[in-house]
Amino acid sequence: MAKRAFLTITLLAAAALAQTASARPFDDPRASQFPALDNDAAANTEPRDPACHALTLAATGGAMPKNAGTLAVRWTGFANYELVYNGQILLLDAYFDRGRLYPSLGFKADDIKRANGILLGHGHFDHMSDAASVGARTGAIVVGAPVTTEKLATQAIEAKQVRTVTGRGGEEFQLGSFKIEPILGRHGEPPPTLVDAFEGALRRTAKQPTDEELAEQVAIRARGTSDRRVVAEGTIAYLITLDSGFRIYYRNSGGRVTDYEKAAMARVGRVDLALAAVAASYLNNLTAEQGLEYLRVYKPDVFMPAHHDAANHGLWRAIEPVFQALKDEKPDLVTVSKTYREPTCFDTRVNNGKPR
DSSP letters of 182-229? Predict the structure, then answer.
């Protein structure tokens, strides 16, 4: 009888633990590193949060996180991200209608109905082509470097919605619960001979686009700028600080870290989350080398890559060698890479500004 009673108690305890685990609103990717996340009894008994499991963007009508302290992050191709926090939506870059040569993101620019702000890292078409239309429809504030906002001035968006920043200091501003600090970066500059060789090989081996597909790409490209100023003057990184103290660093091009970035990071110390583009150098040693510079300067707890997908007939940039190099140097680094629109949620009440 005692044995049966012990078995019953054991099974009930296991069931209670399973119920508690399943009741968590989401799995914070830092939980394995930070015991505070597992020890938060109140958070761990909250019901499952649809915003942290569904593939529908908040910007296209999906759910907002239930808890004001939850940050939901979704990658939507190239260097596009959706950040949702405390009832507000911040879009990082705006390149959604990419054309039939590219994998579908699962939504169109016209589907985006709400956003509070759009931060543009630089003005090449594959970062800003839908910024004007999405900004005009949602009323979002659109932020970019002078060369970027010059292009926006030729498009159908009201001037009062556009904010020009240089990233050279003194431009910090607030967008709802997001404190934004623009920082001048530098665009990626992969070796031309290397890029030419890869692109030449792809052109020779891939299916050639139709006239209609080429015309589609010409129209999309026209909504961005090809001004040479983009490299040294037109690439802006953003340090985003939530009202909880949680810090995000966003960089949409795989270029070298600038003195402006080093100065900003020396001041704040480190960030909770880095959203950083994989360098366009293709070769694993070169992409890993650039990733390591970001790790050493930004000192993130979590690293999420960007700009690693490509056209259907193109070559995606491998992220595993980058992740391996980063974790070889910092074994407790958390690396996260998900598919289009798949959410990653963070309990921002646990962050590098608060004791763990």
Answer: EEE-------HHHHHHHHHHHHHHSPPPPHHHHHHHHHHHTTS---GG
Give 181's strand partners. Answer: 239
How far is CA 134 from each of CA 111, 116, 137, 339, 348, rounded to the nearest angstrom?
Answer: 9, 11, 5, 22, 28
Q: Which domain holds residue 41?
A: 29-347
- CA neighbor of 274 nearest in space, from 242, 239, 236: 239
Q: What is the pLDDT of residues 254-279, one digit of tens each?
A: 999 999 999 999 999 999 999 999 99
**Tokens 């990653």, residue?**
344
- The reply to whether 269 falls in a domain is yes
The domain tally of the chain equals 1
DSSP H or E stretch at residue 276? strand 271-277
CA distance 28 to 65: 13
Cα–Cα distance, 288 to 295 (Å, whole number)? 10
pLDDT tens string 73-108: 999 999 999 999 999 999 999 999 999 999 999 999
What SS3 state is found at 141? Answer: strand
Report whether 243 contacts 86 (CB < 8 A). yes
